[in-house]
Amino acid sequence: MQTRHKYLIQGGTGLAILGFFGWSVVETAMSEPEPNHAATPSSKQVTPPEPATPELDHNVYARATTVRRNAALGNFDLAALGLTQEQAEAVLERLTDWCVLNAGRLATAESAVRGAEREVRGLERRVRTGLATPQEMASLSRKRRGLSTTRVQLLDLQAEGGAFAMQTQPSAGVRWNQARQHGVAVRGELRYLPSLTAQRFRTLRATSARNNTGLEDALMFHEKQELQQIRLRVQAHLPGVVAASQAVLPDPTAEGLLLDGPAE
Question: Is 0.85 surpassed by the pTM of this model?
Answer without folding.
Answer: no
